[in-house]
Amino acid sequence: MPERVGGDPRARTTPGRWRVLGISPGMLLYQVRCVVEDPGWHGPVPNLGHRVYLGRSGVSLRRLNGEVNVVDATSVLLSRPGDEMWAAHPLGDGDVYTCLELTPELLAERPDAARWLDRRGWDGSVDERIDLEHRMLVARAAAGLDGFEFTERVHRFLGRLLAASPIGAGEPGAEIERAVGRRPATLVAHRRLADRAREVLAASDFRLGLTEVAAQVGASPHHLSRVFQRVTGQSLTAYRNRLRVRSLLDVLADADGPPLGEVAATYGFADQAHLTRVVREQVGHPPARLRRLLSAGDAEPEAA
After folding, report:
1. Which part of the chain is the HTH araC/xylS-type domain (predicted)?
2. CA dihedral sign, ordered 78, 166, 159, 147
3. Cα angle at 18 between 14 and 24, to 5 degrees?
4. DSSP-assigned letters across all residues of 225-288
5. Using omega within 30 degrees of 0 as the cis cutoff, is the peptide bond preceding 44 cis?
6. Mind listing the pLDDT tens digit for each residue in 187-241?
């Protein structure tokens, strides 16, 4: 097995600020904060290994083998060697993502690899438990792990991620394809509308109302709400809650961050009790415990 994923990760990403979080035989974990002057398309990015792109904050576009995907804090994008990847930042730079890169030899040893190897990339969404595991992995790797523990944690995380991958009719968009009879022009228009709404919400301060979001994407609130539900499988409210909880997790990762009452006001919650209720519903833990988990990185979250 190769001793490492070859080369400098900065040669295989869009311009940005890089931090290598961990490296062991056949795997490399790093994070990128994109810094670009031109919001247009950049690429293609050479793809030498199998990659997992996990959004952490902000929003960007990724064109994988000609198909454009919106990448935000709810997103996961898988690619294979030989895939052609381009990136764009139409709303400006500053988005942050984690990238896990694996050699084909390492991945081929996993019994669950067929979920990835048989497909030319996967545009999907990770649930809140997987996202928390992702952030815990980043926090612990940044704090320092030996090679043995790093390798074990990455394999465990990858197993849970692949087990959660959507297959077939359960993927986002399946319901809308049935509803509109698979008319290509309608499907494309509806997906573009939903993607535009995702971009607006990801770039907002979470204080925009539904009417304001609809106005920015050029649709009525009713039409946008109905199409978004069909395309993504979730309501605009549910998606907005997912985005703002993931955004505030970055704040909770700072042990010296603002008090929870201030966090609640900043992210548009009615009060601290509302913040606690929504975060517990989304992630399974109250904000105070998440602050301890993400800032200290010294305990596993309990099983759901």
Report:
1. 191-293
2. positive
3. 110
4. HHHHHHHHSS-HHHHHHHHHHHHHHHHHT-TTS--HHHHHHHTT-SSHHHHHHHHHHHHSS-HH
5. yes
6. 888 988 998 998 888 887 787 788 888 889 998 888 888 898 888 888 888 888 8
Tell me the average pLDDT across 280-304: 73
How distant is the alpha carbon of residue 286 from its chain centre?
21
Beta strands in the chain (DSSP E): 16-24, 27-34, 42-45, 50-57, 60-64, 67-71, 75-79, 85-88, 96-102, 122-125
- Is residue 145 within 8 Å of 22, Cβ to Cβ? yes
What b/e string do you get for 112-145 counting C-beta neighbours within 10 Å, with b at 16 or more?
Answer: ebebbeeeebbbbbbebbbbbbbbbbbbbbeeeb
Give the length of the chain.
304
Cα–Cα distance, 231 to 243 (Å, whole number):
17
Burial class of residue 22 in the structure, from the number of CB atoms within 10 Å of its CB (0-12 exposed, 13-18 middle, 19+ buried): buried
**How far is 54 from 134, CA to CA, in rounded Å?**
8
Calculate ∠ Cα 126-132-135, nearest 5°: 105
Strand 67-71 with 85-88, pairing: unpaired
Burial group, residue 237, by CB count within 10 angstroms (0-12, 13-18, 19+) = exposed
Q: What is the pLDDT of residue 168?
A: 36
In single-letter form, the type of residue at position 190 comes to H
Is 70 exceeded by the pLDDT of residue 179? no
**Which pLDDT score, from 0 to 100, does residue 54 have?**
92
The single-letter code of the amino acid at 73 is: A
Q: Determine the 3-state secondary structure of 158 from DSSP.
A: helix
CA–CA separation, 298 vs 294, rounded Å? 9
Query: Structure pTM?
Result: 0.70
Other beta carbons within 10 Å of 23? 19
> Letter for the amino acid at 174?
A
Helices (H) and strands (E) in the chain, counts: 12, 10
